[in-house]
Amino acid sequence: MQLNRTLKWCHKRLVPNCPTGKLRFESTSTVRGATVERLKIPIDQIKSISEPQIDFGLPIAVAKSRRVAKGARNVSNALPPTLQYVRDTMDRHKNYVVLTQMGSFYELYFEHAEIYAPKLNLTLTSREYTHGKVSFAGFPVHQIQRHLKVLVKDHGYSVAIADQFLKDSSITNETNRFLRRVTRIVTPGTFMDEAFENLQENTYLLSIEFPGKATLRTADIDMKIGLCWCDISTGEVYVQQVSLKDTVSAITRIGPREILLDEELMSFSLEKGEWFTELVELKKYFVKYQRLPSGHREMKTFYHLFNCDEEVDRSFAKLDSTVRDLTQKETAALRNILFYIEEHLPNAQVNLQTPQRQLTTSIMQIDSRTNSSLELTSTMRSNSRKGSLLSVIRRTVTPSGSRLLSQWLCAPSLNLSEIHRRQKLVKLFKENDDLMKTIFRTLKQTYDMPRILQKFTFGKGEATELLQLAHSLQSAGVILKLLQKASEKTNKMPLTKLTSSLISPLQCNEFLIEKVLGTLDEEQFLRSRKAPAEFESLGTENGGQKGLDVDPLGESSPWVVQSNASSQLQKLHKLHNELLVSRDILRHDLESFFTTKFQARTVQLKLKQSNEFAIHITASPSNIREIMFKLKEGLLFREELFRVIQKSAQTCWLSHESWLELGHELELTAMKIKKEESAYMNELKGEFVKRSSSIRRIAHTLDYLDVLTSFAKLSLEKSLTCPSVNSTTEFNVTSGRHIMVEDALSTKSLEHFTPNDCNIQAQELWIVTGPNMGGKSTFLRQNAIIAILAQIGCFVPCKSATIGLVDKIFSRMGSADDLYNEMSTFMVEMVETSYILNGATSSSLAILDEIGRGTSGKEGVSIAYATLKHLIERNKCRSLFATHFGTELQALVRGKCHPEQQQKISFYQSAVLDVGENEFYYDHRLTPGVCTQSDAIKVALRAGFPRDSLLHAEEVLKA
Ligand SMILES: Nc1ncnc2c1ncn2[C@@H]1O[C@H](COP(=O)(O)OP(=O)(O)OP(=O)(O)O)[C@@H](O)[C@H]1O
């Protein structure tokens, strides 16, 4: 609507002097459902038109600001070089917010200052130059993460950061001393500032590759689409080829923060669903249309973005063979993502892992509606995590373990041997309580290794991270020994084999761990971090106020690296200690000098905040006066004069050559030690990065163990049973429960969950009837959840279960969100049902709730009947069908279906039990048969419906 008005307005005003083709969309981004459209309008033409009277939103702000920019450019010669750089950068990065480092501040200039300063709550100022005023706003460098969060995460902008580098320290002219360059472009998918990240989730950037000119043809649901997604903060890269009909399920499973599409697709507005309805789901995501001219680039030219490993040749060979095996679409999607990363992180080492290929045939497919109706990761009502399946089953103790659990939950396995492997390990941990608890305890002492490794790759990370990584690897060693012991104890061949498959990837380079733990002074480091007040003894004025860096003299030894780490450090520490001794001697000499001559109370050597090395003396007012008098007369100490820096009644600050020289020397040595320490730590970081492959292997094994031990714990807590998972099409569950409903009941009331059986084969269908609130939907969902839990290797809530692998789970539970708000309820119901009827196979499980309820009774029944016929005849999947049309459907099945088909359809019901006048309770137990009434009046009464009104309803029913 807004866009149309905008376009009309533009055409009206611009067409006379705007040749066709000059006006085009520059980019369209969807930020949480809201479409942000930007127009590219030639600057000169903007100037010639008057302001529109419509709410133009962002485009006009941009247009307006460009007009200002043009004003500045007209006199570009007059711009100082620094501002000219900013202007050029802004012109080069047109769709980005440009932040430029100026000393210890990041600043926004020109129109960007005007547009974004209010959003960031910054004060907008301006400075006068020869050509006019330039607006600007800024914030201190250390606040970058906070402001990036607002710009990128909250508003969905892309931000180009131009950092400042020292060009030549000998140049005194501030302007020429520094050079600036764009070091990073931050978008929602490349946002890595983890202070604001939920570490339990991946930050995926997803590139989708459609076949060339696909959108010019009618959408063919079987056309092949390439996907590549990558989490830069952990280095994970995945590729997959899916068919168009499965694309949205894949996007839901991946849950990307940003989706990358070729700019050419922009004019087709895929998110409107006109080309392919399902793609309206794109509205939920941040979609970036980008020119991606990566097609002409050879894959090898992107290899520098991968693993900076010591086994570099080997890993490139592996990369080569992985890339060779990819399909054309997968390769194109991968190439696009690499191109984008390269462009957004120029000059940075990225250290990506070799791409892992996901095969559609190796994972259960769960479409987005099923994902939300089963509340896998968030609840439907409040869209919160609490109460979702993930939150109810999560017992993992590490963030990366939680990430793996989420990945499994959204993509259960279809690999029988992998499922059995997980089950066996869960059983092992369940039966060995001690082993499970010790692994848990040890895992709690580990840190997020893949993220730390990436930090090192980007040149970030300090001693804390080095120690965290070393401790995590050490914990991996402890777990390795635990597993070794466990496997020796069991003596059962299959189990020994199983544990040893976990043991070998946990082997690590102990030398490096020892080097870190042996040379970094952890205690000292922790103490100095915890207690800045301790620096008061440093001898610096107001010591401690500036934290660790306040000790320029290094007197309180805030050193992180032990002196024995290198011969150079040893030498420097020796020198530093000698200087400290000289300082003590000097202080002692000055003390005796001033106390003997002037009865001074205290004499201290300090470094003032103004960076002056000063002697601080306290004495009585008369003694201070005497000192001042003698100083004027030319008081000498070690043959040098004093100079007065500051004086009050009872104190004075003096400077003296002896302390000046010594102080400077101390400061210089302390700086050299810090530099040496930093070089040493960089070397250690580099050593870890070189071992990326093995560290990632270890981290992955720990995550795997975290999830499996958490399953064992969950299984004990919730009395779960190991299901038998096989390649048949059985689905036999005895006394199954809905794990989330059961959990909610136990925390909110004293009620118990009523278990129910479910026994269906391929081509069989259960029609479940019952009163409103009778538990029909719960029953449908619980069985789908049991299938998912079974296929991620978790035990399941029931007495026993045999589950033939489910390739796809489909649901139609009336949970469509407002993406489809342009369609009627019935239309949505039909879209969703068609999706099931077109996609379910004989290995699928379909759960359908109240098909046909969105239209008139008779037509609704006919649609419901047609659906169930199609499910058993064509799809031949396992189906559960909840309905209020039980009697009608039973009559149709008996009258129209072949006896063989009738055998495949079973009717089950739940009931309401009356226990007195207007008193009743739900019996959630399913029994064979058809429930003839919905007891809607009872439910309405309980919900507070006016009693008088219900009398009318009863009258109608009796008639
Ligand atoms: N097996 C069960 N044991 C105990 N409580 C249950 C059981 N099944 C459902 N419930 C409770 O009943 C409530 C309603 O269940 P559900 O939504 O499945 O009913 P329904 O038959 O689908 O209702 P409607 O026809 O109105 O959609 C649930 O929220 C849960 O609290």
UniProtKB/TrEMBL annotation:
GO annotation terms (biological process): mismatch repair; mitochondrial DNA repair; mitochondrion organization
PROSITE patterns: DNA_MISMATCH_REPAIR_2 (PS00486)
Record carries keyword Amino-acid biosynthesis: no
The entry's keywords: ATP-binding, DNA damage, DNA repair, DNA-binding, Nucleotide-binding
Any GO molecular function: guanine/thymine mispair binding
Cellular component GO terms, alphabetical: mitochondrion; nucleus
InterPro entries assigned to the protein according to its UniProt record, in alphabetical order: DNA_mismatch_repair_MutS-lik_N, DNA_mismatch_repair_MutS/MSH, DNA_mismatch_repair_MutS_C, DNA_mismatch_repair_MutS_core, DNA_mismatch_repair_MutS_N, DNA_mismatch_repair_MutS_sf, DNA_mmatch_repair_MutS_con_dom, MutS
PANTHER family: DNA MISMATCH REPAIR PROTEIN MSH1, MITOCHONDRIAL, DNA MISMATCH REPAIR PROTEIN MUTS FAMILY MEMBER
Name of the protein this chain belongs to: LADA_0D07822g1_1
